[in-house]
Amino acid sequence: MAVYVDSANLEEVREALATGFVRGVTTNPILIARTGKTPEEVVAGICGLEPAEVFYQPSATGKEAMKEELHRIREIVNGFSRPPDLIPKIPATWDGFALVKELAPEWRCAVTAVYSAAQAYLAREAGACYVIPYVNRATRFGGDGPTLVAEIAYVLEGSGVEIVAASLKTPDEVVAVLVNGAHHITVPLNVLKAMANHPLSLQAVEEFAQTSRRFRNLR
Ligand code: G3P
User: In the chain, what are the domain boundaries?
Assistant: First the structure.
């Protein structure tokens, strides 16, 4: 199981990777556009922070344009002395599945923006290593994100294809997808921080501190 930070913001990525337990970074064209930087600048910045893996989604659409962009990004990544594993994140579309089939012998591919177990099944048949369901979005659009993950887990069972659950907004949603068969999660920094905290943990820490202060004063 791995946790990834879902961000293109270098300060957020830096903070997440500094924990030591975040394996890598997932990004998408919207997250990159929000930074005001080019995809090449963002990827170079992320590589400088030395994550183990970077999931990169091309902004181009169409099979050939996506392929060309991925090769361009790979050159940037390979220019670093400690390059991360670059994992193409290809949207679940007709062209996308065909591209995964073509890239699969050479690249470990992820199929992203997955909203059905049927798409997950095609991802498996195309040779993807990962499927990325959009959990909260699926719920927001009238479905049930955690149930979607359970269905995908069933379809992928025994295949070796792993689920990276994305579009997660709360720690409870993270738990629901892990219970339902997600292998990995990718979350924004605020959700990662929310996962680390619980009001009762903070209360317990405060109680420990108060008690030890009291005993020190007695001595
Ligand atoms: O990477 C997936 C994620 O960024 C998209 O979902 O709900 O955060 O827009 P959402």
Answer: 2-218
Question: 185 and 4 in contact (C-beta within 8 Å)?
Answer: yes
Minimal-distance CA residue to ligand 1 atom 4: 167
Q: How far is CA 91 from CA 61, 118, 165, in A?
A: 9, 14, 14
- What would you report as the CA-atom Rg of the chain, rounded to the nearest whole angstrom? 19
| Reported CATH class of domain 2-218 | alpha beta
**pLDDT tens column, 161-177:** 999 999 999 999 999 99
**Is the CB of 183 inside a 6 Å radius of any atom of ligand 1?**
no
CB of residue 6 inside a 6 A radius of ligand 1: yes
* pTM listed for this prediction: 0.95
Yes or no: say if 76 and 98 are a contact pair by the CB < 8 Å rule.
no
* 31 Cα nearest atom in ligand 1: 4
The residue whose C-alpha atom lies closest to atom 9 belonging to ligand 1 is 167
* Tokens linked to 127: 């040779």
